[in-house]
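INFO  loader      accepted 1 record
INFO  loader      residues=124
INFO  predictor   begin
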Amino acid sequence: MKRYPYRCLLFWGVLIVMVGLLAACGASNQNQVHMNETNFAQKSISIQKGDSVTLVNDSPAIHVIENGSWVDGMQVPKDEAGAPQVHVSVDGNISQIIGPFNTAGTFHLYCTVHPDMNLTVNVH
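INFO  predictor   done
INFO  writer      dumping tokens
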């Protein structure tokens, strides 16, 4: 009978940790942008100042993401004031965190491998 209070405490402790982990997992999904073989699944995302964006590659294709955009079939690299410097390779079927975006504004990212693969990040 003496062990019952300890088991009860252990149960509640494990339950609290599990709820916390599930809440953290849900929070990480809110600023995701998925990518298929040749494009972003969405063209833009709106986030809060200080947030990051998680790029999720749902294909085996490799994406090289940088600051700038495709314009009329041409790559236009651009360093935008307040944007994090981005030059990342997102290999097949993995995720990559971009940011944080600490300045409000509109920022542009593109894949150097796939023409017209542009993403606009609106930071509020």
